[in-house]
Give the backbone structure.
Amino acid sequence: MNKTLVAAGALLAGLSLPAVAQQRSIKIGFVSTFSGPPAVIGADMRNSFELALDHLGRTMGGLPIEVIYEDDQQKPEVGKQKTEKLILSDHVDFIVGYIWSNVLLASLKPAIDSKTILISANAGPSQIAGELCSPYFFSTSWQNDQTPAAVGLFMNQKGVKNTYLIGPNYAAGKDMMVGVKATFKGKIVGEEYTRWPDQLDFSAELSKVRAAKPDAAFAFYPGAAGVQFLNQYVQAGLKGQVPLYTAFTIDETTLPRQGENAIGIPGAQQWVNDLPNDANRKFVADYKAKYKASPSFYGAQTYDAALLVNSAVVAVKGDVARKADMIKTMEKADFASVRGSYRYGNNHFPIQNFYLQDVVKGPDGTVVLKTVATVVKDDQDVFHDKCAMK
Amino acid sequence: MKAFFTVRNIVIGALLGFLALLPLYVVVTGQFFPLTLFTRIVILALAATSLNLILGYGGMVSFGHAAYLGLGGYVVGILAKEGMTSGFVQWPLAIAASALFGVTVGALCLRTRGVYFIMITLAFAQMIYYVAVGLDRYGGDDGLTIYRRSEFAGLVDLSGNVQFYYLCLALLIAAIWLVSRLVNSRFGIVIRGSRSNDRRMQAIGFPTFRYRLACFVMAGMMCGLAGALLANHTDFISPAVMHWTRSGDLIVMIVLGGMGSLFGPLIGAVTLLTLEEGLSRVTEYWQIIVGPLLLFIVVYARGGIDGALAGLHRG
Amino acid sequence: MRDEVILLIEQCLNGLQFGLLLFLLAAGLTLVFGIMDLVNLAHGSFYMLGAYFAATFAALTGSFVLGGVLALAATLVVGMAAELIAIRKLYGRDHLDHVLGTFGLILFFNELVRLVWGPAGMNLPLPPYLGGAIEILPGVYYPAYRIAVIAAALMIALLLYLVVMRTRVGMLIRAGASNREMVGALGINVQLLYTFVFGAGAALAGLAGLIQAPILTAHIGMGENILIVALVVIIIGGVGSIRGAFMAAIFVGIVDTVGRAFLPDLFRLVMTPAAASTLAPALSSMLIYVVMAIVLVVRPQGLFPVDGK
């Protein structure tokens, strides 16, 4: 009965409605967090995306671009709903965004089921790098475990013998801890997962860190939580007592509020604002000129996502129905990325360098991030074997 | 003779007709989004109808009714993850789990009244919410994606959107019919009598506690079924579906549509959710009228939309 | 001092701080409930408004303390206005109407805040003199801000106690909580009393909000989660009883904090750290609701009820 209805409907539709297949513009759906404390990250991503579109002359493959921004409110079920709306109601050609790993995991199925190309400009859960990998998924960021693994290597270099791990209790937090443990050679004397996202008061956990007296502590707290964690770490008097190593806890969106508390606290990243390549220099300079602020790694990854989409659209000359061809082009990562060139693994996650970043006082007195060293070159995530592709 | 073609009956009839014919429109235009939206509306209307049974007719203000949505949903989700995707197993278990929760919670809660009843139902809902948050294997707060919908050995294909929609609609109509039979039976009279004056009902000789508990459990089972439907519809379940503010949303639907009326919950669900979908495209500040509107209805227009429509006839 | 003892002291202080915060929130709620027999779900909205006002005024005046004082005044005004315009209509109705009406107010205030301040939330940075740690006992460092919070909250609690127990207004409040009809019959302007009590309750909630603002940042919907805990506190303590609210709040604060701190270690003996950290806070949160359910079934008037109930 269903099939008859569909057939009748399709006939009617085919006869009566104008051909919908004509592409008049490239529609891109953008899912990020635009409300609540993390809104500053969403704003950074949006600004960077808009800047990229400006640099592309607001067209891709000759067609104008239409972006629809949706707020996931940092909640998996809302992100999923918004993703579905973008696909079913707005009929977008691409979906970009996703700060949070749990939101991405909830939103993946509708995109894959509808064969819509989804580009994660931040979240990199291990499941999507492994068994849940899909040809329609691309990452312009990293896989969650890679960055903390780089920090672990650095901690070994520094002679840290034991450490206390602390992070939020959701998909990305768990990935981060696994990542550190994969490379860190010392002993783990404590492992705490705090409630996410509403726990911003770390007094209980910081007391335990102090009591354990580790050589060092490792923390992963993105966004506003990073501000709170770092400031409370300093307020508790821990900064001088227990050296802190971080991933994604100190970035250009959190530095203004962390200020001098962040000085001397290292982290790892695949992009730092002072990377010496032309695309990056242009990105950072134009961003500062247009928005009067410094872009963060979230923004850099989103900028790259726009360029990645563009490379695909240009290759098919605007005919976005040719998904297989677009995917083939995207797999080449043939565009000028702000992190320098990189290539894709079989699971569509980047194979790239990771750098050590430190926080110092800049020439004008403000605190800035700067690259100190390359921790690891051409690093690939450890889950690509679990992916059935290629 | 009671007039059949009252304004209210015409509106309800038109609404039912619209719901029945929606898939035709969707298939013709190829716009599948309205079908997704209205499937969700129908499922939530089922949940609201179940709550109306105890709240509207029984005066039992449960602020934890969304817990059943979660219970039903998690039974489906957990079984699906563990490899059991047969709807013939999942759905009865979802209803049974809801019945068990309802009996346990009801036996304790129904000893209290007024705001204490509200608080204790909320407490139990929060407890089960935290149990779900604590289920590390099933995603905890991140939620659980459901990769295969409930299977019924070929009888009904739930992944077919139109079939699924009609199933939900049929279940909603069946639920409304069931509620109408219940409230107009002797059972219903005891429940409604117990709402206005419990002592008098007991004095007449009815063991009201047992009746109210049975009513509470039935409402829970109906909502558990809605939960199983919702999990299938969204292919996803997370503790958020059980949060107390979601119970609040169900209550808003009932009050808006008309408490203690058969079609009130459906009217409320349709109104609230289409407003949400429609107005949000016009302005992002539309919600500012929902709050005062609710307050207004509570103070001045107790019958909700259904009551207002009925009043038009008397006009 | 031994490490375990230091840890215990710190955790107890953390629990005390959280408990006192809950008390500030619960005090207003229990007064309104006890005297006006009104369940005010929108109490959390005043908590949120206090945070936003404080962030705004602190940014405008450049002073943390001045910003806080102005925020309190502003929240008091908003509270009294809400009472005059909306809450007043709900007196005498059944509890469902209160719940629905004030739920509507929650939705309204959330949208109002979004309209006025935007969706992103606001920060309230701590002044430098509150930003460090103080060695309160040899070897025991505790953040200065939290010590300030504990001290301030204890002072407010004392002030509240003195007002309620030793002044005429306080006597009216206590009388109203025990027998509201009698107070009206004695010729007291009950309307005015109600407006004042509601406003004071809102201001206390606002104080709790502005205290939390430097840590949580002011954001929309921040009142919803803590409101439920405050309701649990007043049920356990006994509706209308300030003393009950105090005891129950400290109890809940310590149980939640200590549970969060030590339960994961206990669970880690039998499961992975991630699973332990998932289950433990869930369990300690559940525990509070279990206690409330027990109280409701066994002793519904609460553990420290007002006399006359």
Observations:
- Chain C touches chain B through 46 residues (CB under 8 Å).
- The longest helix of chain C spans residues 3-36.
- Residues 19-126+169-298 of chain C form one domain.
